[in-house]
Amino acid sequence: MSDPDVIVVGGGPAGSCAAIVAARAGLSVVLLERGPFPGSKNMYGGVVYPRILDDLIPNWWEEAPIQRWVTRRATMLLTETQALTVDFRTEAWGKAPYNGATAYRPDFDAWLAGYAEAAGAQVLTSTTVTGLLRDDKGAVVGVTTDRPDGDLRARVVIACDGVNSFLAKEAGLYEHTDAKHFTLGVKETLALPKEVIDERFGVRGREGVDIEIVGCTGGINGGGFVYTNLDTVAVGVVLKLTKLAAQATRPEQIIANLKGHPAIAPLIEGGEMKEYSAHLIPEAGLRMMPKMTTDGMMVAGDAAALCLAAGIWLEGVNFAMASGMYAGETAVEAVRVNDVSAKGLVGYQRRLSNTFVLKDHRKLRRAPELVLSDRVQHLYPQMMANIAERMFRVDNPEPKPGLRRILRQERKRAGVRRRHLWRDAFTGFRSYG
Amino acid sequence: MTAMNFMETMETAEFRVHPDAHIVVDGSVCTDCTTRECVVACPANLFVPTADGGVLFNYEQCFECGTCYLVCTQAGAITWNYPAGGHGVVFHRT
């Protein structure tokens, strides 16, 4: 095999999009995937927002292996005995061009990799990349793999090797790696008949539900989720690594606690476990992001920590697809002008900066920390639920208390200081406003 | 819900086990560790404390997530690599 123009490491959404763009522009591309098929190693918290594919794969929604279109999106605050939910639904998200969809990643990622192959990229599965090849000046000129005679050289390497990205680390793109920037996602996929899911979640046909939950992870900062596939319901939790490691309850027990909550248990009752799975999430946004390029190499997707964990917005696959596309475009440009140095690849950073990829992250740079802060995690859900309970409780013969009094009393009862509440509201407003 | 112990839970995931371990734990380093972050955090529960104060590790049902090496505080205790191509965890497709 003659050396390709581009090696893409990792057949996830970032890698496939990079390969599609580069191969369609006429470059020779090799896409390396360590699993037996693209997507086989991949798992997520449930919802993909594919609009970024509009240009790459017109009418993608007619082809994509989605489970359900999310037409009901709920955010739920849980305490041990209460649940306060903001529950939104719209017909608009149930028809083209849709909004979010639930999908199994092994289905979705393999489907996307099919487009890379169709564009002319050579997809090599069951191939683990073990390191980088560098020239005497340190520029990346290829990768080593675990195949016999497995060294592979190329003009450009695009590292889409996931959240642990040993390639980005080997290239020195991360200054340091810190456990506090990661969360662990664990998930159970529970089989239930489609009619039962439709009835319990109040949906029909391909309509689906995504529930994001705060206050269900005990003393560990994090969150939970419940979402519908066609004939399974996925339930899981996301746990801040450093907090998980510093206490005694194991992840599967935290899921069990969520499943036993009175607001959740009736939704999943009788569900038969089809699969248990786990994956890390790069949670800290801009605070953890690496340098995106070095001589001969770019990094995209989870490998570049391009995951948006901003509470009301939890996205990753769309950031992976977009960054992969932009890395692919940049590779095409760099090979054309015959400059694959970091300088020649500078268009990648520019593309990330000028699009939602880094605009969203810059705007929401304080959000991940706020969402995982102790007050948002441990004090506010109780306070909000108590406020709701007081508001809707009829205490006759007592007359109704004023809302201001309820707010003041419940804030004090939850141990929330007024200046902290204002500070968090201000941070929230600066981020989300 | 059918009651399930964790061993049965882990059996719902598919692992194509390679004869060589991709993660190696040096249990002698672990004897000096009092905090044992890996034992509680590993989502597959693969780290088991032993009576003699060490930690026993079995790589076969590993999700390859990276939690253990990130939470570990003992330099040199965990040597972490991905399994050989085509091996390790394989999540289900429809």
The count of domains of chain B is 1
Radius of gyration of chain A: 23 Å
The overall number of domains of chain A is: 3
Tell me, briefly, the overall form of chain B: globular
Q: What is the CATH first-level class name of chain B?
A: Alpha Beta
What is the mean pLDDT of chain A? 96
Question: What structural category arises from helix and sheet content of chain B?
Answer: alpha+beta
Termini separation of chain B: 23 Å
Q: Helical residue percent of chain B?
A: 10-25%
- What is the name of the CATH superfamily of the largest domain in chain A? FAD/NAD(P)-binding domain
Oligomer: heterodimer
Residue windows where pLDDT falls under 50 for at least 5 positions of chain A: none
Number of helices of chain B: 4
**Count of alpha/pi helices of chain A:** 14
Question: What does this entry look like structurally?
Answer:
The complex is a heterodimer of chains A (433) and B (94). Chain A is an alpha+beta fold and 433 residues long. In chain A, the strands form four sheets. In chain A, strands 3, 4, 5, 6, 12, 13, 14, 15 and 16 form a nine-stranded mixed β-sheet that branches. A six-stranded mixed β-sheet of chain A has the order 7-2-1-11-18-17. In chain A, strands 8-9-10 form a three-stranded antiparallel β-sheet. In chain A, a hairpin with a 2-residue loop joins strand 19 and strand 20. Chain A is built from 14 helices and 20 strands. Chain A has three domains: 213 residues, FAD/NAD(P)-binding domain, CATH 3.50.50; 104 residues, D-Amino Acid Oxidase, Chain A, domain 2; 60 residues, no CATH class. Chain B is an alpha+beta fold. Chain B has a single domain, classed as 2-Layer Sandwich (Alpha-Beta Plaits), CATH 3.30.70. In chain B, 21% of the residues lie in helices and 19% in strands. Chain B contains four helices and six strands, in the order H-E-E-H-H-E-E-H-E-E. The model of chain B has no long low-confidence stretch (mean pLDDT 93). At the A-B interface, helix 2, strand 12, helix 5, helix 6 and strand 16 of A face helix 1, helix 3, helix 4 and strand 6 of B.
